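Look over this entry.
=====
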Amino acid sequence: MTDPEHYMSRLPAVAAYPSSKAALNALTVQYAKELRGDEILVNAAVPGACDTDFTKGLGLNITRTAAQGAAIAVHLATLGPDGPTGGVLRRQRPRPLVRPDPAGRVTSGPGQS
């Protein structure tokens, strides 16, 4: 976390959280590549900060409810077969990590290798 104003910077220093999120992004890309031929969509969800027990002690004014945060999971669960794959979706806006090429093969997206 490089932004000192980001709410995550107020959490206790824990190396496991950011590294596990990076690992999940990498797994999302790899599963999307492997399963694209089987017409299976693979995406990760980032609901954003929600008012939960996890965030209560941060001293922040977080107004998004857990139900509002869950909306992205519902959106992903109801995607049609032409929906995005290999991406991180933030509040129903896709942020692709990979993009299929014109032949339908999944390749790395910008900044990815």
About this structure: The chain has three helices and five strands. Residues 16 and 78 are 31 Å apart (CA to CA). Confidence is low (pLDDT under 50) at residues 107-113. The chain has one domain: 7-100.
